[in-house]
Task: inverse folding
């Protein structure tokens, strides 16, 4: 290639002849950028600092809320065995009691048997990466069938005499205590994995990454297993209750995740979309036949997708819905369940999901059955609390979720997965503690009741730059609940319109400053509210 040489004299001549033009263009560009910046700052100032208005439309009815919950997995079985009476009673009150979160949904884990002693030295349970506290008991007496043929196992799983319902005693004690509060009206019996004797790997996690671990010939046996366990638990633990909770069975949990190979740290079972859709076909037939024969009305919680995000390089919720939609049972499904992992407080992921559902499966609802902040540590910060508030608020408003559950009700870990934390100190002393997120959860769970209907609400801040999240709900008796989150680091004055018939309010506030409980105070309702910086405020309005 021939090199081109340019002399200094030629460069100087070029700039002499063209310098003015370049300067003009540069000045014009800078002026345009300055004007755009000024306009943006002006719009931001108007949105963020003007007197904002939220308008509630009580006639615009959305979904009926079924409530809020958390999972009793893992820690509850240990707490039931090792916790002091004071710790057990107080933790239950903090979660399900009137003075606590008033959760009305309990999620009880049906273990797959990974805690059986004959698996103590079996991979993956003996590897450092498997958390021993995540091993779970099964009620099935597998020790009698370790060398059984498939035919013998089919018969054994369908025979109630092969189950010991004195097992998992710690978890059952905690369940009884939670039911005794009288606030639980829905219980979800969920399984992370089928019993290990039904799997290809012979354990409650796959031998390989993304292994479809439930043997196809055991689809029916797994259904029998779940129905026998649930029915016996209901008979033995619900019979004395004044009001019978709704009973839901969730046989599959986060089917798209790997759940196999090195690094597996808990029970879990991967399903590709087609095998999962085929399994549900068997389960719905079994469930219908069981309900008819026994006069029960057990329901099925479908999918428990690891999240509702859409991927490019792996199977996602779209593919599972497409596979299930080919079966007749799909027409009987009113909603599917999913977890908010990965989506966190993203509006984009929620909008994409809802647009897809509206286009392809109009009328299909969603239930959010699990979420936690997946980071190490215990973040006792208002930022962590606000994240939870935004996740709940946006799941309820953008996805019209019918119910919302956190992951672990109680956690002993140095991880952001608990509502209540349980610590056993070196001297044997046991203590319970909570973080800001506990109080933010209560802003929703304590004041939005089962049967409340979410209603439409709009804000004058169309850009969203003011940092407000908000939602409104009405009760059959006329009570209205409004929850407003101020994510901004500055206070906000807001006018709440559409509620002129209301004269009284109970204001409940959680802020970043010295908050140790729900600060409730009665006030006259004028529609004018002042929101502290980085706060969650709930208003319970009456006429």
Result:
């Amino acid at each position: 290639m021939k090199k081109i040489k340019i002399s200094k004299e030629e460069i100087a001549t070029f700039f002499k002849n063209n310098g003015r033009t370049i300067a003009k263009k540069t000045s014009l560009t800078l002026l345009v950028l300055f004007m755009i910046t000024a306009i943006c700052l002006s719009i931001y100032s108007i949105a963020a600092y003007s007197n904002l208005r939220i308008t509630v439309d009580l006639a615009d009815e959305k979904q009926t809320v079924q409530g809020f919950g958390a999972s009793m997995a893992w820690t509850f079985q240990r707490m039931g065995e090792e916790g002091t009476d004071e710790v057990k009673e107080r933790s239950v009150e903090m979660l399900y009691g009137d003075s606590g979160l008033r959760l009305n949904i309990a999620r009880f884990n049906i273990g797959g048997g990974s805690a059986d002693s004959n698996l103590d030295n079996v991979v993956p349970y003996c590897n450092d990466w498997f958390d021993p506290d995540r091993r779970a008991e099964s009620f099935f007496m597998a020790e009698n069938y370790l060398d059984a043929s498939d035919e013998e196992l089919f018969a054994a799983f369908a025979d109630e005499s092969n189950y010991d319902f004195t097992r998992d005693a710690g978890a059952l004690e905690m369940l009884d205590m939670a039911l005794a509060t009288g606030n639980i009206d829905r219980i979800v019996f969920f399984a992370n994995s089928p019993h290990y004797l039904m799997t290809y790997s012979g354990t409650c996690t796959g031998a390989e990454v993304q292994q479809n671990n439930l043997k196809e010939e055991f689809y029916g046996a797994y259904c029998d297993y779940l129905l026998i366990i649930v029915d016996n638990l209901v008979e033995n633990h619900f019979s004395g209750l004044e009001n019978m909770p709704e009973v839901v069975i969730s046989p599959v949990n986060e089917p798209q995740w790997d759940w196999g190979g090195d690094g597996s740290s808990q029970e879990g079972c991967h399903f590709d979309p087609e095998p999962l859709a085929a399994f549900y076909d068997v389960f719905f037939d079994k469930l219908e036949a069981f309900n008819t024969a026994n006069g029960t009305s057990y329901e099925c919680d479908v999918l428990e997708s690891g999240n509702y995000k859409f991927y490019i390089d792996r199977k996602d919720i779209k593919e599972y819905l497409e596979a299930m939609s080919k079966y007749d049972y799909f027409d009987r499904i009113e909603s599917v369940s999913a977890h908010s992992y990965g989506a966190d407080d993203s509006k984009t992921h929620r909008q994409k999901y809802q647009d897809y559902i509206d286009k392809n499966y109009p009328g299909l609802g969603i239930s959010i059955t699990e979420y936690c902040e997946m980071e190490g540590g215990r973040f006792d910060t208002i930022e962590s609390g606000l994240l939870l508030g935004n996740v709940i608020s946006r799941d309820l408003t953008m996805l019209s979720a019918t119910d919302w559950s956190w992951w672990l009700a109680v956690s002993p870990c140095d991880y952001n997965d608990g509502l209540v934390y349980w610590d056993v100190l070196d001297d044997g002393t046991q203590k319970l503690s909570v973080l800001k997120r506990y109080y933010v959860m209560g802003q929703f769970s304590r004041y939005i009741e089962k049967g409340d209907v979410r209603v439409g609400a709009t804000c004058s801040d169309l850009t969203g730059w003011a940092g407000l999240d908000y939602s409104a709900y009405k009760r059959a008796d006329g009570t209205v609940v409004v929850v407003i989150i101020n994510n901004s680091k500055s206070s906000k004055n807001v006018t709440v319109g559409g509620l002129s018939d209301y004269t009284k309010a109970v204001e409940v506030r959680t802020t970043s400053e010295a908050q140790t409980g729900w600060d409730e105070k009665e006030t006259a309702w004028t529609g004018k509210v002042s929101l502290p910086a980085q706060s969650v405020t709930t208003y319970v309005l009456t006429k």
